[in-house]
UniProtKB/TrEMBL annotation:
GO terms for molecular function: D-ribulose-phosphate 3-epimerase activity. CDD domains: RPE. PANTHER family: RIBULOSE-5-PHOSPHATE-3-EPIMERASE (PTHR11749). Its EC number is 5.1.3.1. It comes from the Bacteria. This is Ribulose-phosphate 3-epimerase. Belongs to the ribulose-phosphate 3-epimerase family. Keywords: Carbohydrate metabolism, Isomerase, Metal-binding. The gene is rpe. Binds 1 divalent metal cation per subunit. Pathway: Carbohydrate degradation. The keyword Nucleotidyltransferase does not apply. It comes from Streptomyces hyaluromycini. A divalent metal cation binds at H31, D33, H64, D173. HAMAP family: RPE.
Length: 228
């Protein structure tokens, strides 16, 4: 499976989002963190900004909804131009129905798990998804330190994906950097959200390329990838 690098605009300059999107040309997706100050203790942006950003860039938008009532709001982000929409299972009332609705509207459906949420109870839901997001920090703020204790959870998730023969992307978000991305790839992740590691660099596009090279090298040597 191809490595994908998704710069997070949470670490970008919100007054210059169109320029910041152009600064990471070559990235696979733009990761857009939507926070409502209820599900997480932070407030970021919503549908109008996603609509504007979708018009300003050709890079597809990967919207991560850290909000309450995603069953109500997630479809609006597809309509706003998001090509992938991630909801948190902890907040969703009916995750299967929501994933199917997101797909029916033409976007990729993704489900996120906070660090304390185990993957095993949701094994039967995996075929309904296009991507699963394992949070490697507590959601809510950028710039946090990577939680190494999530690596076994990433491995177990990759094993479940392989067990069922699914073409399911496995994304990690939180503290992903040059010092952690190889461990994530080795554990089974193939989609990497990076905020500070990209937008904190002097050359964000070069940072994307460097992270991709690291992840591809680690993936080539990973036991899970060799089994495919």
């Amino acid at each position: 499976m191809a490595v994908q690098i998704n710069p997070s605009i949470l670490s970008a300059d919100f007054a210059r989002l169109a320029d910041e999107a152009k600064a990471v040309e070559g990235a696979d997706w733009l990761h857009v963190d939507v926070m409502d100050n209820h599900f997480v203790p932070n407030l970021t942006l919503g549908v109008p900004v996603v609509e504007s950003l979708a018009r300003a860039t050709d890079t597809p938008l990967d919207c991560h909804l850290m909000i309450e009532a995603p069953d109500r709001w997630a479809p609006q982000y597809v309509e706003a131009g998001a090509s992938s929409v991630t909801f948190h299972v902890e907040a969703a009332a009916a995750p299967v129905r929501l994933a199917r609705e997101i797909r029916a509207k033409g976007a990729r459906a993704s489900m996120a798990l906070k660090p304390a949420t185990p993957i095993e109870p949701y094994e039967d839901l995996l075929p309904e998804l296009d991507m699963l997001l394992i949070m490697t920090v507590e959601p809510g703020f950028g710039g946090q330190a990577f939680l190494d204790i999530m690596l076994p959870k990433i491995r177990r998730t990759r094993e479940l994906i392989s067990k069922h023969g699914l073409e399911l992307w496995l994304q990690v978000d939180g503290g992903v950097s040059a010092s952690t991305i190889e461990r994530c790839a080795d554990a089974g992740a193939d989609v990497f959200v990076a905020g500070s590691a990209v937008y904190g660099a002097n050359d964000p596009a070069a940072a994307v390329r460097a992270l991709r090279t690291q992840a591809e090298s680690a993936t080539a040597q990973a036991s899970w990838a060799c089994d495919h």
